[in-house]
Amino acid sequence: MDNNKTIVPPHLNAEVYRSDTTGTSTLTYLDYIRLHPDGTILVGCSELTGRYWNGGVNITQCEGKNKKFNKTDKNSISLTSGTADGCFVENSNKVLLCEDSGALSVWTSSDDAWKQWTEELSVAEHDNMVLSVDCLESGKKYITAGADGNVKVWDICDLVCIRNYDSAHTMAVNTVSVRPKSHTFATGSLDQFISLWDENIFQPVCDIVKNNCGIRCLQWLDENRLVFGDDAGVLSILDIRKPGDGTKLIEFPAAVHKIAVKSGTNKLAVCCDNKTVTVCEITSDSKINTIYKNGKLHSGFVRGLSWDSRDEDVLYSVGWDGELCKHNVNEKRTKEHS
């Protein structure tokens, strides 16, 4: 049987790319969401299965309902690499984006009817993906953590790195979180350590905990307690006044990917490497109660969570299914939709 007609000669492979008409639209693998108090949402996405490995950001007004992001939707901002995190800079017309290329970029929108986004500043000083960002001083200082193991403090007025914690961890730093009412912050890494840092000191203040597996995410519950999730699916709480082992709160069936604490409360939302969104409340004696659980709204992994500051019972989630979902959390009754 003659197969010559079905085999593409090696020297003609490039023709496939020259005649490619699929475009460079970023697929709707949504990675994170940030919600501004004025109702503007920032949703970051990356192309995970295509040729281009680019990324993008959608910035739009929150409609207060579920929304499907399609491949044909035009991004507010198009990036040449994926994006794992980003945030608003004070106002909703300025954003700070982390890129998989190791770059950090500041974008602003015009005040006219077109709302065009323009890259104001960009610099690449991380040697690998920038995985997490948090605000140290609103509008001025921000902290990034990367897969290169480095942590950096930035003056974003000029986008200058003003402090570089080189080799802060020996493996990828998945998460960084600023301690409330303080200039200290905590980082969590795949090297199993959670470390406490002060922006004025080059060395860590202390290693708060040495876990038995990699740290995936952490958030401060208040000035002294933080909650963290790991690769084993365990959610734990730790009081930094007593460094050491954390107290196990609950174990999930998959690695804990993201934690979102509702400001001013003991309520937190959790998503893992699955389709379920869980909301829990931590009591004063560090016990945990599940008050909401939903595994039906998403058809793919949930990746991002954000509370609506305008309504204490509203939570938004995004995932790799391209869906933005609204959750109405009722504290009085646990809703099981799994």
Could you provide a short overview of the structure?
The chain has 1 helix and 29 strands. The protein has 338 residues and is an all-beta fold.
Average predicted local confidence, pLDDT: 88
Inertia-based shape: globular
- Estimated structural class: mainly beta
Percent range for helical residues? under 10%
Strand content of the residues, in percent?
Answer: over 45%
Number of helices: 1
Number of strands: 29
Radius of gyration over C-alpha positions, nearest whole angstrom: 21 Å
Strands across the major sheet, in which order? 22-23-24-25-29
Distance between the first and last residues' Cα: 53 Å
For the largest beta-sheet, the strand count, sense and barrel status come to: 5 strands, mixed
Query: In terms of per-residue confidence, which ranges show pLDDT below 50 for 5 or more consecutive residues?
Result: 334-338
Order of helices and strands: HEEEEEEEEEEEEEEEEEEEEEEEEEEEEE
Keywords: Cytoplasm, WD repeat
Subcellular location: Cytoplasm
Protein name: Methylosome protein 50-like
InterPro entries: Methylosome_Comp_WDR77, WD40/YVTN_repeat-like_dom_sf, WD40_repeat_dom_sf, WD40_rpt
